[in-house]
Design goal:
Length: 130
């Protein structure tokens, strides 16, 4: 199993999935972390410094998460502190379960909490006001 954690810096958890600069992908085997890699987020305009004003997306404009979903397609779970509902739905359609964390933790602690069944699906934002 692979669990992706949205990260600002490859060390801590990002406050927003789409604006994360990277993803820490944990390989889990036998209920334990067996490895990790950091993947830079070059898949979304948000992570590249665009859309930084927290403005809402125009519903008439196409807003695709296909690239980021494809980049995480080998993962079964994504953990973060915030995520828009469109991104969450796109991940779910691809068979990736998104979770919004409700307590501060290191990426490793968040993965351990998930593995222990202590992480429940959280609410997803319907706008960019977090």
């Amino acid at each position: 199993m692979k669990i992706a954690v949205a990260s600002t810096d490859g060390v801590s958890i990002s406050p927003h999935f789409g604006r994360s600069k990277s993803f820490i992908v944990f390989e889990v085997a036998d209920g334990r972390i067996a490895g990790r890699e950091v993947r830079q987020n070059s898949y979304t305009a948000h992570a590249q410094g665009q859309c930084e004003g927290h403005e809402a997306h125009d519903p008439a404009q196409p807003h695709s998460h296909a690239d980021i979903v494809n980049a995480l397609s080998d993962c079964q779970v994504v953990l973060c502190y915030g995520m828009g509902w469109r991104a969450a739905e796109d991940l779910k359609r691809a068979g990736i379960q998104p979770f919004v964390l409700d307590a501060e933790a290191s990426p490793e602690e968040a993965v351990q909490a998930f593995l222990a069944g202590k992480v429940k699906p959280g609410a997803f934002c319907r706008c960019h006001e977090h």
